[in-house]
């Protein structure tokens, strides 16, 4: 320790990859869980849609609260394994077990379980799994303790690289396996198709294996212990004006990103009409474009700073998104337009995904230099409450958007909702708000970084 904060050792690429690798297993969980729960419990087990909605909403509340509480608890933990490792080691198996229980209810409840039993099962295990997902809070908080600020953009690019690989695998899983599972499980929910069962078990195995490999291999952080009450820590972070402003900016941006991410494949299918292989095409384009965006913007952060890079990303999205309106014209039903539009949007999304991992680690680092205490856990966990609310609002709005009146007068196309075209301008307006807010109020580059 010094009056400037933690003395870091420059990390090797191997160490950074080890730290980033658990994101692959985590991505398996977050990419499949919400879709699979709706798919399984509504379409296969015929659980009332209102019950499914209540259970999913309770899960979101569970994850928001648990990320905050686990983040704070990890800040105050004292053990020979440090502050973060115990939570990763204890919570990852719970996440894996509840993941399996959620996706294979027929093995335990029978073919035609009563609605009440199915609802209770879904609520209990969804809340447990979402609460266990809070393992990501001490994991991400660890970033601020293991790596210096100048290496965090590279680490974030590695984390997002594993995220993208995980998303691609889940997309292939959805197209190759889930499309065939529905009819088989609908006929007899107690007979789980072997390819579905094996896939779920492999996902769970990789989740726990990669998390444990990373946790055991990485060193214990050298952060001094400290003792304070939750209300005191909460008072400190709520007085951190820049932290609150960054959280608000991220909330505004997430309204746009959640909407665009969830609707882009439908836009490609209904408006651009890329055909039967839409999911494969869109996934391939987005993977390549997001990887390009990750490493391009990582380089810009290292050479031009975080705030200038973020403003550039926002500006990029603001300009590109409204080109969805070209879907009004027949020439938009082409591979050229579809590829260009999806690529440019995905580059902006890839660039934005760099920042959450970086911003809160840097803010916690900045606070430590002022207070002498590194509260990375609570700084990482608290924003989840705001962000889960914003994402829920965005997804609710997206559902309304795609039900807007259909356009029927575009030649050589099937009717599609006008909302698919309006998503671009709406997303652009939200990014304008995020840009203006961030440019005026937010600090992302700190004076101590230059030293």
Please outline the helices and strands.
Elements lengths: L12 H8 L1 H23 L4 H27 L9 H19 L2 H4 L5 H18 L3 H6 L1 H4 L5 H36 L6 H24 L12 H10 L1 H32 L5 H27 L1 H15 L14 H19 L1 H17 L4 H6 L1 H19 L4 E2 L8 E2 L1 H23 L10
Helix pairs in contact: 1-9, 2-9, 2-10, 3-6, 3-18, 4-6, 4-10, 9-13, 12-13, 12-15, 12-16, 12-18, 12-19, 13-14, 13-15, 14-15, 14-19
Describe this structure in words.
- This protein is mainly α.
- The protein has 2 domains: 1-225, Up-down Bundle (Growth Hormone, Chain: A), CATH 1.20.1250.20; 227-451, Growth Hormone, Chain: A (Up-down Bundle), CATH 1.20.1250.
- Helix content is 75%, strand content 1%.
- The protein has helices spanning 13-20, 22-44, 49-75, 85-103, 106-109, 115-132, 136-141, 143-146, 152-187, 194-217, 230-239, 241-272, 278-304, 306-320, 335-353, 355-371, 376-381, 383-401, 419-441, and strands spanning 406-407, 416-417.
- The chain has a two-stranded antiparallel ribbon with strand order 1-2.
- Helix 1 (13-20) runs parallel beside helix 9, helix 12 (241-272) runs antiparallel to helix 13 and helix 12 (241-272) packs antiparallel against helix 19 (419-441).
- 47% of the residues are buried.
- The model has no long low-confidence stretch (mean pLDDT 86).
């Amino acid at each position: 320790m010094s009056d400037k904060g933690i003395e870091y050792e420059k990390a090797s690429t191997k160490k950074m990859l080890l730290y980033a690798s658990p994101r692959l297993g985590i991505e398996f969980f977050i990419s499949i869980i919400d879709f699979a729960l709706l798919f399984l419990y509504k379409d296969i087990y015929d659980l009332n849609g209102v019950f499914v909605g209540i259970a999913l909403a309770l899960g979101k509340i569970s994850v928001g609260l648990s990320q905050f509480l686990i983040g704070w608890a990890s800040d105050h933990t004292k053990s020979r394994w440090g502050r973060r490792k115990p939570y990763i080691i204890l919570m990852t198996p719970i996440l894996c077990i509840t993941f399996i229980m959620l996706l294979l209810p027929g093995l335990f409840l029978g073919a035609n379980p009563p609605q009440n039993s199915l609802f209770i099962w879904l609520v209990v295990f969804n809340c447990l799994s979402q609460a266990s997902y809070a393992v990501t809070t001490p994991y991400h908080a660890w970033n601020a303790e293991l790596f210096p600020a100048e290496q965090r953009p590279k680490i974030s690019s590695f984390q997002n690289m594993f995220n993208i690989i995980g998303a691609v695998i889940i997309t292939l899983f959805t197209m190759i396996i889930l499309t065939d599972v529905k009819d088989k499980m609908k006929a007899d929910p107690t007979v789980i198709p072997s390819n579905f069962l094996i896939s779920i078990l492999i996902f769970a195995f990789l989740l726990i294996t990669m998390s444990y490999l990373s946790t055991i291999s990485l060193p214990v952080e050298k952060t001094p212990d400290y003792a304070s009450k939750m209300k005191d820590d909460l008072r400190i972070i709520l007085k951190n004006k820049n932290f609150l402003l960054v959280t608000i900016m991220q909330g505004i941006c997430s309204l746009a990103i959640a909407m665009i991410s969830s609707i882009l494949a439908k836009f490609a299918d209904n408006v651009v009409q890329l055909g039967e292989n839409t999911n494969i095409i869109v996934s391939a384009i987005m993977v390549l474009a997001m990887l390009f965006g990750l490493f391009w913007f990582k380089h810009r952060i290292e050479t031009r700073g975080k705030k200038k890079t973020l403003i550039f990303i926002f500006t990029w999205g603001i300009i590109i998104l409204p080109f969805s309106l070209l879907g009004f014209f027949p020439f938009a039903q082409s591979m050229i337009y579809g590829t260009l539009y999806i690529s440019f949007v995905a580059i902006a999304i890839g660039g934005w995904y760099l920042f959450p991992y970086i911003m809160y680690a840097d803010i916690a680092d900045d606070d430590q230099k002022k207070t002498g205490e590194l509260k990375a856990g609570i700084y990482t966990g608290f924003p989840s409450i705001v962000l889960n609310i914003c994402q829920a609002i965005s997804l609710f709005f997206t559902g309304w958007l795609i039900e807007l009146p259909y356009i029927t007068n575009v030649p050589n196309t099937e009717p599609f909702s006008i909302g698919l075209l309006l998503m671009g301008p709406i997303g652009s307006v939200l990014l304008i708000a995020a840009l203006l807010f961030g440019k005026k109020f937010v600090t992302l580059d700190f004076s101590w970084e230059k030293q």
